[in-house]
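Sharing a chain and its predicted structure for anyone who wants a worked example. Both blocks are below, sequence first, tokens second.
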Amino acid sequence: MVEELLQPRASFQGHTLETPWSDLQLAYFVGCAMWTYLNTPFLLARPGVESEEIEPWKEAGETWRRLKVRFPSDIATHSTEQTLYFDQQGLLKRHDYDVEISGGTPAAHYVSDLKEFSGIVFPTKRRIFPRQPDGHSVSEPLVVSIDLDQFVLS
């Protein structure tokens, strides 16, 4: 064994957005984040996940329906409460959360370029920006950019 992190979530105690992460902390966060991204909306059907529709949101000339989701403590994800935004076709457009392990940093996560793989539609582009207290995102800085071009489902 070269390195281990027995209590990964607890290792972020006291962190802010500026606190550097170890390689193992980065691996833990990326694993939790990608698991959440790739399993939404399916994970909403898991026991203990609660959701409620909240008031609609207007953005980019569209009105999106919003779903506030509360995750139980046994699901390792960005934050206990998150908000999903859906267009008129019921497709995910945006995903808001506060990155609890980085001092509750608010994020607005946009998905686009939807493609179908084995009958399931996935966003292939993900862009994450800071979110202001009023819920609006700011276009700079781009915090995270993820491009996926292949999904293999088995």
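Comments welcome. Residues 10-147 form one domain.
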